[in-house]
Amino acid sequence: MNRPTVHVVGAGVSGLSAAVSLAAAAEAQIVVHESAAIAGGRRRPLFDEASQTAFDSGADFVLSSWTSALALIEAVGARAQWREAAPDGIAFADLATGERWRLRLGRGRFPWRLLDPRNRPPGVALSDFWPGARLARAPAAARLVDYAPRFGTAAERVWRPFALAALNADLERASARLAGAALAASRWGGATLLKPSRGLARGLVEPALKTLARCGAATRFERKLVGLAFADGRVAALDFVHDRVDLAPGDAVILATPPQEATALAPGLAAPQDFAAAVHVHFAAPAARDAPPILGVANGAIHWLLSGEDSMTAVVRDAGALIERPRDQLAAAAWRDVAALTGQRDAVPAWRVVKRKRAAFAATPEQDALRPGGDTRWSNLFLAGAYVQTGLPDCLEGSARSGAMAAERVRAWLASR
Ligand SMILES: Cc1cc2nc3c(=O)[nH]c(=O)nc-3n(C[C@H](O)[C@H](O)[C@H](O)COP(=O)(O)OP(=O)(O)OC[C@H]3O[C@@H](n4cnc5c(N)ncnc54)[C@H](O)[C@@H]3O)c2cc1C
Q1: What's the chain's Rg over C-alpha atoms?
Q2: Is the CB of residue 258 below 6 angstroms from any atom belonging to ligand 1?
Q3: Whose CA is nearest to atom 3 of ligand 1?
Q4: Tens digits of residue pLDDT in 163-192
Q5: Which pLDDT score, from 0 to 100, does residue 108 have?
Q6: pLDDT (0 to 100) of residue 287
């Protein structure tokens, strides 16, 4: 008997997670369709026209406690690519006061290192972290600011950076429940930060494609899905720009596109619509030898400074107000902060500004309420994507989890037939 075919549309982390999970079990023939020329979705390497080379933005972190992301990395044999990014705790600097500190939470399930004031930001008491313990029981409509302080040192040095980094929304708008979920998924801060030593492409995407090829799955690039044909409560055909694929009754589809494409393709589907922008400014300037690989910035135009061997990257999260500004102005403003943080006096070095209007959905109670489950009203159509209801904000763990959950749904559907 012919094996059914599962079509996975979208080769971001969610689609790759779904495809790897199904292909490994050989229950179905897997075909991945991706509209772009390469895989990786929002985190695919960018092409630099000037040097005619692809480059990874170098801003991909996962936590050692993220089970789905690490299971995917393990499944594609890429665990050795990942290194601890901040073994001495996460370094911070306050540009207004010049103060520097490291946040060290401690390994394991309890952030015991916070008991020592040297592991906390200056002016922040142990009790300032207590809201974290109450977030797990927060109701769906609550905001982080209902639990954590809005003003003062703890707000600026703990809760606001956390909201921007983990929830892609400011403290006032972020969902308390998703904040609690993000904390719980980090083992209450006890996890370590991992980073791929040679970028996400080598640390996950390329190994995933190799794994798929080894399992006999097909991956097709530059294949944009433009329509789904429905009949008898199921998807009967996939319309791509240049051709149509008819589906046999036992075939299934996992739609692993971003939400705006998914809602355009599947009538009546609700999904988050409010996305936070991000701006990354890459400078071709080597960081000092003792520079922390990741530096959180308080009271600056930038929120993070990432230091590599021959470059530095300034990151602005929730950057909607900046996204239309000319690139040279963004580079100059970011360099002012970088120079102040690093003591560099040189003129602005060669730079590259990457703007992302829709970097991640804003983890607010309103957007969380719009997230669909993985099933649809069509029997053979399933959803994957960081925006699907995973219980987590938009992150690589959520993407990997949504893909694994979609694969599980397809498996159950295939078994039920
Ligand atoms: C700048 C930036 C930095 C980030 N840093 C981190 C980080 O450090 N840690 C972390 O956990 N998360 C991070 N994130 C979030 C993380 O990258 C996302 O959660 C994740 O990549 C989302 O994956 P996805 O597969 O759900 O969606 P996407 O990556 O958006 O993938 C969807 C795929 O579908 C394809 N597609 C779209 N429409 C069609 C169509 N019609 N037909 C065929 N294919 C289609 C797209 O081309 C794309 O490849 C970051 C995001 C950004 C933008």
Answers
A1: 22
A2: yes
A3: 59
A4: 999 999 999 999 999 999 999 998 877 788
A5: 64
A6: 87
Domain total for the chain? 3
CA distances 226 to 20, 35, 333, 385, 386, Å, are: 24, 10, 40, 18, 21
Residues 6+ apart with CB under 8 A from 6: 22, 28, 29, 30, 31, 251, 252, 253, 254, 410
Note whether 123 and 236 are same-domain residues: no
Spacing, Cα 40 to ligand 1 middle (Å): 7
256 lines ligand 1 (CB under 6 A): yes
From 346, 361, 376, give the residue that closes a domain. 361
Whether residue 363 has its Cβ less than 6 Å from ligand 1:
no
Regarding whether 280 and 268 lie in a shared domain, the answer is no
Contacts with 98 (C-beta within 8 Å, 6 or more apart), sequence order: none
Rounded distance between C-alpha atoms, residue 315 and residue 318, angstroms: 10
- Answer yes or no: do 117 and 206 share one domain: no
The structure's pTM equals 0.95
pLDDT band per the 50, 70, 90 thresholds, residue 290: confident
Evaluate whether residue 224 is within a structural domain: yes
**Which among 257, 265, 356, 361 is the best mutation to test ligand 1's pocket, defined by most ligand atoms within 8 Å of the CB?**
257
Q: 364 in helix, strand or coil?
A: coil
Rounded distance between C-alpha atoms, residue 336 and residue 348, angstroms: 9
Q: Which domain holds residue 42?
A: 5-56+199-273+368-415
61, 136, 330, 333, 339 from 327: Cα distances, Å: 25, 40, 5, 10, 18
Q: What is the mean pLDDT of residues 53-69?
A: 81
- 183 is a domain residue: yes
Which amino acid makes up residue 215?
A: C
- Domain C-terminal end among 191, 220, 251: 191
- CATH number for position 286: 3.90.660.20
The CA 258 to ligand 1 mean position distance, Å, reads: 7
